[in-house]
Amino acid sequence: MTTRAPLVPDALPSRWPTVARAVVLLTAIIGVLLVAFAWPSVRSSVHDVPIAVAGPATAVAQIRTALEQRLPGGFEITEVADTAAAEQLIRDRQVYGAIDLSSGTPQVIVASAASTAVAQTLQTMATGLGQAGKPGTPVAVRDLAALPADDPRGAGLAAGALPLVMGGLLAAVLLTRLVHGTVRRITGALAFAAAGGLTVAAILQFWLGSLSGSYPANAGAVALIIAATSLTVLGLESLLGYAGIGIGAVLMMLIGNPLSGTATAPEMLPGWSGTLGQLLPPGAGGQLLRSTAFFDGRGATHAVIVLIAWGALGAMLCVAGGLRTRRADNAAAGLRTTRTSPADTTPARLRS
User: Fold this and answer.
1) Which has the minimum average pLDDT: 221-235, 261-275, 291-305, 336-350?
2) What is the pTM of this model?
3) Does residue 256 surpass a pLDDT of 50?
């Protein structure tokens, strides 16, 4: 006579309420993902985009009025006297472009390397502005900081933002699983950032042709992005365990990447989201890489400060988590020693 072995609890079918909870959770997750990635794109438009207008005060006032009628609140205008002043503001990354009326013949100066979306918007807005008093006069468009000929739409730079974030997250996960010791993990993250910076910059610049400028500067920018991301996630994991990796992934991928403005411009994102994005590594990293690749490093100070701050915060969290773990291990070891030590039976007269 044979008896059937009892069913293992794990082999029993799940209860229907469990299935319902799983469906609700998955539905919520896909909804959050859609909002995180689609909302910035769908609501993207021009909001207080800084531009310059050069020329006489009367002509500048007319342009200001025309722009406000076409796109209310779309532009933040800086008035300058001549073409040279407008070009300097563009090179310093203080404005995205300029409308120049100072030479008598109107022209629009753009910087597609700063943002192809803003450059296209300025070109569209230039149509119909023309010379003062002569609407419809053709307006010349000049690109002061053009993208490379091999990637005139900036697709490589925009598409490279997500792999950089994912690379930093992957580095943190692997170092957590494979490397023990706070100093060794931090060293591993920095070494990977350096190697990854050299590799990614070489691919974008020499193979895809998406970057110009100094290769060492571009490699340093990429390395700083990877280091800030990986150290932050490492620090969160060191302090909070695997939950820290989840928090880091949400912070970098679901918040930082969609709000980075790398594909358009931070000013084109809805509401306060563009400002928030520039305070996170993906957004600051995109702005830094544009500065090193196309503007000789101008306008990079804010991005460098943000990335260094995140990297330093991550390193401090790693150290704090390591010290807490060490204290816990020492306390556990002391407790085990106390429990396993034999009682001291030495006579009192000998101990004295």
Assistant:
1) 336-350
2) 0.84
3) yes
Report the candidate in 244, 254, 196 with the shortest Cα–Cα distance to residue 220.
196
| CA 128/CA 111 separation, integer angstroms | 20
pLDDT of residue 251: 92
What pLDDT is recorded for position 60? 84
Residue 249 near residue 169, CB atoms below 8 Å: yes
Token pair of 138 as six digits: 């053709």
**What is the reported pLDDT for 322?**
83
Beta-bridge mates of residue 134: 131
| Average pLDDT, integer, range 151-158 | 86
How many H helices and E strands in the chain? 13, 5
Strands 49-54 and 97-100: parallel
List CB contacts of 273: < 8 A, sequence separation 6 or more.
40, 259
277 neighbors 261 (Cβ within 8 angstroms): yes
CA distances from 113 to 7, 256, 294 (A): 65, 21, 6
| Of 71, 79, 94, residue with least CA distance to 145 | 94
The DSSP-derived string for 84-124 is: HHHHHHHHTTS-SEEEE-TTSS-EEEE-TTT-HHHHHHHHH
Phi-psi region of 82 (alpha: psi -120 to 50; beta: other; left: phi over 0): beta
Q: What is the pLDDT of residue 106?
A: 81
Whether the CB-CB separation of 292 and 205 falls below 8 Å is answered with: no
